[in-house]
């Protein structure tokens, strides 16, 4: 066939990009491709004309060095890992904003996000009954929009953002691999369900089978003993994760609960952020003005007495007059009064509608979780521990008590300030000899007593407070609950004479009662919240350790070494590549071994039957003469090195090839390699018997090679030094990237009419 024939695969876009691309990943459901570049941007492009949809620039909260990308199987969320901040960000596909993020201990080098395809009646009934909590719990009110951007996720009018984050009920798992053997599995991309140990080296590839039975890992082990050329070799390990698969319904249910809990914790955290923003600095004015007054005045009378004299005799000393009229002023007093009122009422609303409903929902889910933990035959082996959850419930209870205490403080502060400001306003009008409206002038004896009590309680100087906070007064009592830097309250609420407290103090039995939530009168709201988060984290951590310990290595194999010299390309595109077929019974590893300066693609196929018997086969593939235009040359001289290879679907591998002959116009080729042309004769791939002692590349001569001549499933990539490819067999698309990492071409792979082209492969088995 002459090369003038219609090239396979239709090119639909081409772009030169300003920054070097270090990652490409096709969306599983739509014609979108996510890219990450050297500058730390994450970009989303459309297939058509490679048009940009959005870009997420790096920022100091997330990080600058993207090292891994993965799509959630439903294509609605893109996850990426950052090395410099060791964070994982889950981003919305519709608009570039983070929906959820968490930190990990080590930098991530690879991510894989899979979905469980298993069906069972138990699971189906759970999928349908999942929304019980929606019937029992009131909907979480959306956070007010006018606060900072951190609260975006919950501030939509409808809280479907949370549902988008939780996604489908069917279990999906984000598997993270990192340096020095770090592997963690996160259910729904949010809750850590397993921490896997016992794998050496830094992770270069991961694949968790869709039935959760096995996890394949490829790691790179650096051997630093040889200082000359540092050598790296890859090994493939297969881990048995059967605990996850045998307890699938339980794992799904538990993970779902945990995901609800972590979204609620985030909701509570954001509500608190809004509360802190509602509390304004102007509320501190009273304290700072009075402190300055103490520092500057000459008389010995205390501030409290100065105000008392004004209250009782209607006369103020000249100094107090100067403070009130020149510094505070009538206008300033009005403004302060309004600020306090609006600020306190917004904080009050946030506590009542957001903090309380969030904490109640949290109590509900934790109590359900405790019920699950008590069902020992099902959940004990997954590490759910009822006593830990009990502690978490208690901690949430303490948090609710603290929030209620804050409500009481706000309530009494509002009353006190109102009465105090009203009285002070009239007194100041009199000083300036303005006309006082008669309705303002009425002060009953009760009002006077009220203000006197307020002055007695709030206006006494506290020298020890000055050393701690640089002020003598703490008239404003709400801010101390919301300030993050303090664990202890400056002026805790007065519990003297409280009958309930005295009753508790004197009763020995009630102190230990599990029905009473412990109360920390001295502590701030932030402290109690941090304590609650810590305890919940701890109780959610345990299953991850237990499940992680159950994972053990089924087999391990050393593949090959690479010398550091050729190691200049970014690690991100490197083979080896892992693939599980849909039945999850066949696992493939693709890798290349350099042999006589030709890099040959090798396919390692591992077959697990239901009977658990395992057959392994390794094949090398050579590509014969594709471009038949140079017939005069001897056919041996045209051989192809494989630059990159990826599974397109269960039957096909997409490869990028390069001619090995040194000459001008050396073309790069994009080709589809059908596995049917490789695995023709069943027995042939069993000839190579390996033992796990030596590395594969040392015995590469013994590996059977099959030569494939591609008839029409290929296309020459003109004017492009193609090097890497990323494919998506579901959407039938591919994206080729040049060796300088800036030139991109996208193709639709299946454009020929059905039935016209039969795959005419000639197989020569050498």
Automatic annotation (TrEMBL):
Pathway: Protein modification; protein ubiquitination. InterPro entries: APC4, Apc4-like_WD40_dom, APC4_C, APC4_long_dom, APC4_metazoa, WD40/YVTN_repeat-like_dom_sf, WD40_repeat_dom_sf. Its main location: nucleus. Residues 578-748 form the Anaphase-promoting complex subunit 4 C-terminal half WD40 domain. One of its GO terms (biological process) is anaphase-promoting complex-dependent catabolic process. Gene3D superfamilies: YVTN repeat-like/Quinoprotein amine dehydrogenase. Residues 238-434 form the Anaphase-promoting complex subunit 4 long domain. It comes from the Eukaryota. GO terms for cellular component: anaphase-promoting complex; nuclear periphery. Residues 24-115 form the Anaphase-promoting complex subunit 4-like WD40 domain. It is found in: Nucleus. Keywords: Cell cycle, Cell division, Isopeptide bond, Mitosis, Nucleus, Phosphoprotein, Ubl conjugation, Ubl conjugation pathway. Belongs to the APC4 family. Component of the anaphase promoting complex/cyclosome (APC/C), a cell cycle-regulated E3 ubiquitin ligase that controls progression through mitosis and the G1 phase of the cell cycle. The APC/C complex acts by mediating ubiquitination and subsequent degradation of target proteins: it mainly mediates the formation of 'Lys-11'-linked polyubiquitin chains and, to a lower extent, the formation of 'Lys-48'- and 'Lys-63'-linked polyubiquitin chains. The APC/C complex catalyzes assembly of branched 'Lys-11'-/'Lys-48'-linked branched ubiquitin chains on target proteins. PANTHER family: ANAPHASE PROMOTING COMPLEX SUBUNIT 4 APC4, ANAPHASE-PROMOTING COMPLEX SUBUNIT 4. This is Anaphase-promoting complex subunit 4. The lineage of its organism: Eukaryota, Metazoa, Chordata, Craniata, Vertebrata.
């Amino acid at each position: 066939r002459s090369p003038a024939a219609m090239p396979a695969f239709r090119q639909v876009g081409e772009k030169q990009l300003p920054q070097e691309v270090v990652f490409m990943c096709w969306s599983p459901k739509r014609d979108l491709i996510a890219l990450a570049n050297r500058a730390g941007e994450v970009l989303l492009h459309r297939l058509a004309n490679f048009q940009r949809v959005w870009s997420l620039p790096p920022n100091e909260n997330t990080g600058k060095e993207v090292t891994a990308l993965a799509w959630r199987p439903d294509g609605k969320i893109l996850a990426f890992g950052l090395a410099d901040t060791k964070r994982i960000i889950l981003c919305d596909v519709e608009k570039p904003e983070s929906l959820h993020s968490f930190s990990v201990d080590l930098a991530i080098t690879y991510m894989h996000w899979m979905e469980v395809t298993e069906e069972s009646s138990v699971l189906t009934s759970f999928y349908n009954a999942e929304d019980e909590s929606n019937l029992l719990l009131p909907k979480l009110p959306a956070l007010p929009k006018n606060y900072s951007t951190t609260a975006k996720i919950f501030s939509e009018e409808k809280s479907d953002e949370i549902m988008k984050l939780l996604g489908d009920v069917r279990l999906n798992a984000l598997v993270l691999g990192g340096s020095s053997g770090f592997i963690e599995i996160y259910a729904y991309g949010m809750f850590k369900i397993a921490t896997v140990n016992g794998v050496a080296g830094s992770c270069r590839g991961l694949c968790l089978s869709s039935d959760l039975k096995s996890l394949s890992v490829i790691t790179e082990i650096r051997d630093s003993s040889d200082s000359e050329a540092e050598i790296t070799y890859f090994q493939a390990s297969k881990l048995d994760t059967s605990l996850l698969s045998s307890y699938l319904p339980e794992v799904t249910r538990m993970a779902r609960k945990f995901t609800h809990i972590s979204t609620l914790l985030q909701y509570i955290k954001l509500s608190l952020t809004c509360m802190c923003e509602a509390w304004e600095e102007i509320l501190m004015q009273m304290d700072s003005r009075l402190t300055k007054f103490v520092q500057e005045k000459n008389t010995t009378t205390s501030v409290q007495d100065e105000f008392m004299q004004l209250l009782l005799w209607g006369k103020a000393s000249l100094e107090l007059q100067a403070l009130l009229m020149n510094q505070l002023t009538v206008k300033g007093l009005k403004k302060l009064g309004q600020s306090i009122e609006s600020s306190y009422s917004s904080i009050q609303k946030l506590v009542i509608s957001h903090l309380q409903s969030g904490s109640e929902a949290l109590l509900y889910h934790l109590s359900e979780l405790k019920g699950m933990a008590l069902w020992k035959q099902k959940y004990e082996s997954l590490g759910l521990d009822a006593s830990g959850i009990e502690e978490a419930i208690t901690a949430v209870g303490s948090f609710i008590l603290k929030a209620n205490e804050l409500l009481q403080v706000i309530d009494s502060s509002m009353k006190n300030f109102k009465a105090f400001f009203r009285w002070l306003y009239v007194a100041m009008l009199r000083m300036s000899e303005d006309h006082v409206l008669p309705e303002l002038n009425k002060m009953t004896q009760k009002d006077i007593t009220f203000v006197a009590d307020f002055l007695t309680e709030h206006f006494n100087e506290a020298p020890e407070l000055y050393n701690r906070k640089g002020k003598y007064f703490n008239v404003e009592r709400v801010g101390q609950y919301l300030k993050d830097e303090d664990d202890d309250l400056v002026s805790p609420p007065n519990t003297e004479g409280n009958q309930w407290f005295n009753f508790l103090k004197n009763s020995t039995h009630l102190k230990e009662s599990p029905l009473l939530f412990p109360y920390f009168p001295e502590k701030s709201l932030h402290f109690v919240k941090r304590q609650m988060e810590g305890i919940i984290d701890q109780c959610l951590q345990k299953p991850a350790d237990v499940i992680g310990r159950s994972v053990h290595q089924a087999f391990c194999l050393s593949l090959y070494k690479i010398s550091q010299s050729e190691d200049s390309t970014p690690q991100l595109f490197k083979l080896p590549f892992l693939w599980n077929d849909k039945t999850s019974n066949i696992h493939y590893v693709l890798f290349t071994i350099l042999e006589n300066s030709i890099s040959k693609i090798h396919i390692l196929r591992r077959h697990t039957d239901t009977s658990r018997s395992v057959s392994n086969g390794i094949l090398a593939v050579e590509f014969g003469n594709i471009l038949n235009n140079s017939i005069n040359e001897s056919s041996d001289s045209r051989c192809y090195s494989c630059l990159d290879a990826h599974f397109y679907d269960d039957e096909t591998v997409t490869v990028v090839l390069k001619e090995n002959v040194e000459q001008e116009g050396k073309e790069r080729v994009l080709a589809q390699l059908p596995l049917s042309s490789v695995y023709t004769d069943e027995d042939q791939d069993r000839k190579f018997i390996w033992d796990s002692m030596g590395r594969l590349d040392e015995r590469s001569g013994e590996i059977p090679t099959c030569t494939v001549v591609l008839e029409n499933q290929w296309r020459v990539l003109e004017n492009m030094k193609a090097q890497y490819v990323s494919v998506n067999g579901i959407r039938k698309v591919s994206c080729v990237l040049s060796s300088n990492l800036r030139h991109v071409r996208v193709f639709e792979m299946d454009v020929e009419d059905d039935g016209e082209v039969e795959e005419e492969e000639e197989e020569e088995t050498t």
